[in-house]
């Protein structure tokens, strides 16, 4: 499987709470729902990405947000149908027996477990959100493509995908789409350390 990450970002790099006011109030965050009512092209793309995923890899925080919300949605919602109908893998040292049906917790040598998942079949292993996990996957050279959905908004507070001080990484653009609503859907391939002039 190809490991694909998908992250919603504001122009100032915030990834926290794009979907709703109460989605993630961690750290006193009060500006949830900044992705707005939606851009139809972005929505169509997200649905397509979830439908095409063979399995999902979730960090603990994203699991805690997704499980109570998506597990009770019916199959008439295409994202719920994908999440509830396909294998989910949770990276956690504390949730050993997850409640969400079809979820397996990865334990032990995490890098080896994820490599084994990648070698286990075809299709995409999709990582939605999960900023801490995405950074760890990039550091361990496990990401095949990094997808960033950038919205035309400055949030001004909240957790960011990349810290102000962190490792450097060169990226190759695979595909870029600018929607009518001004959002940018960008898929990138990690290339290792950048070369500096």
What would the principal axes of the Cα set say about the shape? globular
What is the count of helical runs? 5
How large, in whole angstroms, is the Cα Rg? 16 Å
State the total count of DSSP E strands.
8
CATH topology: Dihydrofolate Reductase, subunit A
From N to C, what is the helix and strand string?
EHEHHEEHEHEEE
CATH architecture: 3-Layer(aba) Sandwich
Q: Under the CATH scheme, which class?
A: Alpha Beta
Domain module tally: 1
Q: Which bin fits the share of residues in helices?
A: 25-40%
Structural class: alpha/beta
Per CATH, the superfamily is: Dihydrofolate Reductase, subunit A
Averaging pLDDT over every residue, what do you get? 92
Distance between the termini: 35 Å
Question: For the largest beta sheet, what order do the strands appear in spatially?
Answer: 4-3-2-5-1-6-8-7
Biggest sheet, in brief?
8 strands, mixed
